[in-house]
Amino acid sequence: MINRRHWLSAAAPGLMLLQLANTPRALAQSGADAAMNSTPLHRAVQANDLGRLRQLLAAGAAVDARDAQARTPLLLATHANLVPAARLLIEAGADVNAKDAIQDSPYLYAGARGHLEILKLTLAHGADLRSTNRYGGTALIPACERGHVETVRTLIAAGMDVDHVNRLGWTGLLEAIVLSDGGPRHQQIVKLLIEAGADVNLADREGVTPLQHARQRGHSETARLLAAAGAR
């Protein structure tokens, strides 16, 4: 059985940062900092003003300028899933791999959040499949955890390493089991990973295999899929 205390200890710094970043005071400060440091291009994206965005780009605005959190205008567009704005920025040469202060890039964020149209744009414009987030995970791993079936399918088709292990010692397959309710979406993701050749016996740091995790959690259909693929 997975040692939850061990996992929480390993994840605590990142979880604490996320908690602090989402307090009302922190959010207000973040907004104030962004307002002080953002460029007209950032503000046009935040307003979803495509006309202004086109004007600024045509005038030579720095497409990869950073705000107080080191976010580019494209990352802001990705946060809000503003597909037309993202398309304009990418076509103007925005870097789809440019990371902010917490190691998110437009490509990584789109994958993690299931923003499929923007993800496809990033993949078509040089997304680095080997890039990782602050937890050492690829775009595929959080997509598996969050049940983004089409995102997982798209990333696999792009050539993603399905057996990449993050700093917590988990693969996409493990996260699709350990951090899910074992429902239909996650079952489909497990099936996609198996079909893509994922190692069904790649255990976590405690030596617990995907099949063992599935059985411990009562994910009977997931366990059946794994066993049929040779999992132990």
From TrEMBL:
UniProt signal peptide: 1-28
Superkingdom of origin organism: Bacteria
Extent of the ANK repeats: 36-68, 69-101, 102-134, 135-167, 168-205, 206-232
InterPro entries listed in its UniProt record: Ankyrin_rpt, Ankyrin_rpt-contain_sf
UniProt-recorded Gene Ontology molecular function terms: ubiquitin-protein transferase activity
Keywords, ordered alphabetically: ANK repeat, Repeat, Signal
Name assigned to this protein: Ankyrin repeat domain-containing protein
Origin species: Xenophilus arseniciresistens
Gene Ontology biological-process annotations: protein K6-linked ubiquitination
